[in-house]
Amino acid sequence: xxxxxxxxxxxxxxxxxxxxxxxxxxxxxxxxxxxxxxxxxxxxxxxxxxxxxxxxxxxxxxxxxxxxxxxxxxxxxxxxxxxxxxxxxxxxxxxxxxxxxxxxxxxxxxxxxxxxxxxxxxxxxxxxxxxxxxxxxxxxxxxxxxxxxxxxxxxxxxxxxxxxxxxxxxxxxxxxxxxxxxxxxxxxxxxxxxxxxxxxxxxxxxxxxxxxxxxxxxxxxxxxxxxxxxxxxxxxxxxxxxxxxxxxxxxxxxxxxxxxxxxxxxxxxxxxxxxxxxxxxxxxxxxxxxxxxxxxxxxxxxxxxxxxx
Length: 309
Known about the structure:
By secondary structure, the chain is of the alpha/beta class. It has eleven helices and 14 strands. The longest helix is centred in the middle third of the chain and has 14 residues, at 106-119.
């Protein structure tokens, strides 16, 4: 459905996206992950024809985003990170306006309005002005404008940004519902969103693809390591780091000093190297008290941090 091949986007001497290639199959929900500035939004804007790639090619259902731009736009519903709403308009007036822009006319318009109002849960808000709506309902109106022309593809940039937990769950359910009949690409910083909704995950970092696959495949990619969460009392941070660095089989992933002065550390080692005994010996030799030492399974967040650190 969507093919991105060796795409680069340059702003002067800076490459925001660097030789990126991936595909999204019909009916698939792709979670697009990456730190701020990684190139997610730039990639989405190229797919939706808001800007051309500097090099490479992008096709949507066989149509080129440069040569067949208008045909591609008809197939895509786009929700930018900043929801494009005219706040002085009423909800129904705004949706009618978007229907005009999308050339949804006649009896099809009434059907389209009824459909998006129902799917996006806007029935109780349809007679209100947009500036009267909560952020959650404004986001629902944003979804409605993106699907009013019943596109085959949805591209959603940070659709849950700034929402409270209840609103996030509502939007998550809406994405899952829409994904039953459409191809969806959505970007987010929330790992739970990706795990709950996506069929496949793509992680981008510094303009390049760092990894892609199902969440289980990504977690398996670092499952060759043992992971230990450790809490120590009476341990100096700098001394702890120096001592850990002397043990070849252990790598320090993260370390924090808690408010009460205890030291919290995340350690990794290859499977087959049980590092708990070495940690115990190190603690005894340095008079550190082990308050917690627990192996844990890797999460998608672990994968993300490892690939984008």
